[in-house]
Amino acid sequence: MSFRPLHDRVLVRRLEQTETTKGGIIIPDTAKEKPMEGTVAAVGTGYHSEDGKVRPLAVKEGDTVVFNKWSGTEITVDGTEYLVMKESDIMGILDTTATKKKAA
């Protein structure tokens, strides 16, 4: 089964949270908060503006994004959990190439 979001919707897979803190303390599942970062798995075609034109989305598949804590609707596709949300629920795109260049 595949899922294709419509219009200005985005399909996001949450990034996994680490099991331990920097100090080595193991965090139990009941104390973990759901991460607010994820990878875009699929995007819709865009939304229709008032003049009837389709505006493409700013995010694309593979982008790592930060979104609001309670945004989106959880769905399961082929055993994997995803969030379906509007593009406006996404606060920004994380640029992973910039952090890799600084580390090198």
Give an account of the 3D structure.
The protein is mainly β. The chain has one domain (9-20, 28-93): 10 Kd Chaperonin, Protein Cpn10, Chain O (Roll). Helices cover 8% and strands 37% of the residues. It has one helix and eight strands. It has one helix spanning 96-103, and strands spanning 9-14, 37-43, 47-48, 54-55, 64-67, 73-77, 80-86, 90-94. The strands form two sheets. It has a six-stranded antiparallel sheet, with no helix packed on it. A hairpin with a 5-residue loop joins strand 3 (47-48) and strand 4. The longest helix has 8 residues, at 96-103. The radius of gyration is 16 Å and the shape is elongated. It starts with 8 loop residues before the first strand and ends with a helix.
Q: Please state the CA-atom Rg, rounded to the nearest Å.
A: 16 Å
Largest sheet: 6 strands, antiparallel
The dominant shape is elongated
Enumerate how many helices there are, as a single number. Answer: 1
**DSSP strand count:** 8
CATH architecture: Roll
Mean pLDDT, to the nearest integer, reads 80
**Count of folded domains:** 1
CATH class bucket: Mainly Beta
CATH fold naming: 10 Kd Chaperonin, Protein Cpn10, Chain O
Uncertain runs are none
Spatially, the strands of the biggest sheet line up as 6-7-1-2-5-8
Strand content: 35-45%
Distance between the termini: 40 Å
- Please identify the oligomeric state: single chain
Order of helices and strands: EEEEEEEEH
Helical percentage: under 10%
Structural class: mainly beta
Classified in CATH, the superfamily is GroES chaperonin
